[in-house]
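Q: what sequence does this backbone want?
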């Protein structure tokens, strides 16, 4: 089994011959905080006041043919959002930040729905922000 990463124990990104749960299109935003001071007759002068919170977003494809139960994973993610859970986001064995992240929002697309409403494939877009 090849572990790609994890968000605490809620989401384990992994690849094996029985199961593939990975993400794609991950983007990370890192910023600084600046206070702006007005100076008469001149442009504002910025003053660095510290690091801003990092934000991360990525897409997860949940497909039953890849050994995943889409609804089960979606429910775990929804629970983390609605309970305000904060966990370390680890990719490739390294934390993305020294701080934990929380899932600020998630959008879900039910790509393939089978009889009785069983989800066969779904796409989940996850947005996270650093929690301090």
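A:
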């Amino acid at each position: 089994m090849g572990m790609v990463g994890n968000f605490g124990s809620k989401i384990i990104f992994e690849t094996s011959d029985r199961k593939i749960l990975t993400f794609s299109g991950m983007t990370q935003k890192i910023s600084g905080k600046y206070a702006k001071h007005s100076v008469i007759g001149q442009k504002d002068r910025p003053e660095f006041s510290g690091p801003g919170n990092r934000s991360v977003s990525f897409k997860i494809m949940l497909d039953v043919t890849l050994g995943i139960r889409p609804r089960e994973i979606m429910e775990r993610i929804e629970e983390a959002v609605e309970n305000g859970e904060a966990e370390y986001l680890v990719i490739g064995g390294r934390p993305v930040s020294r701080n934990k992240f929380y899932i600020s929002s998630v959008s879900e697309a039910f790509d393939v729905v089978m009889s009785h409403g069983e989800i066969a494939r779904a796409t989940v877009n996850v947005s996270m922000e650093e929690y301090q």
